[in-house]
Amino acid sequence: MNKHVLFVAVTILILGGTGIVSQAYAATTITIETDKNVYDHTDTITITGTVDPVDENEVPVTIMLINQHTSIVEINQLVVNSDGSWSGQIVLNPENRLQSEDGVYEIRAQYGSTKITTSIELTNAVETSEGVGTEVG
């Protein structure tokens, strides 16, 4: 009879401990937004987002701008605020050959092992028509 009581007690401890561990390693969520969907090659991209839960070890969010050829154009680490919010900017440079082409670019954000991706379009804001510049919106 004592073996059965010991077995039940050990089982309860294991199941109880598993529940506590599972809560400690709850799934992390991350969001990402940009201030616009379409940018000129000389614009600044403002990126904002949130993470939940916030890691007490002050883990940064890593962001990458990836071109259509899957090359990393820019990479940066951003501080996560205590409320889980984060923000940053990518300053576009038309002289950077990795971002010189028009097209769809990805912005990837990673917090720990959790990743999220959004897309933006890079295009020329000024086109020339018979020597006269016209803005395309």
Approximate shape? elongated
The main sheet comes to:
5 strands, mixed
- Mean pLDDT, nearest integer? 82
Question: Tally of extended strands?
Answer: 11
Cα-atom radius of gyration: 24 Å
Question: What is the topology, as strand order, of the major beta sheet?
Answer: 3-9-8-5-6
N/C terminus separation: 81 Å
Helical fraction equals 10-25%
Low-confidence stretches: 18-23, 126-137
- What percent strand? 35-45%
Class by alpha and beta content = alpha+beta
Helix-strand pattern = HEEEEEEEEEEE
How many helices in DSSP terms? 1
Can I get a quick summary?
The chain is an alpha+beta fold and 137 residues long.
Report on the architecture of this protein.
- The structure is a single chain.
- By secondary structure, this protein is of the alpha+beta class.
- Helices cover about 15% and strands about 45% of the residues.
- It has one helix and eleven strands.
- It has one helix spanning about 1-25, and strands at about 30, 35, 40, 45-50, 60-65, 70-80, 85-90, 105-110, 115-120, 125-130, 130-135.
- Strand 10 and strand 11 (about 130-135) form a beta hairpin.
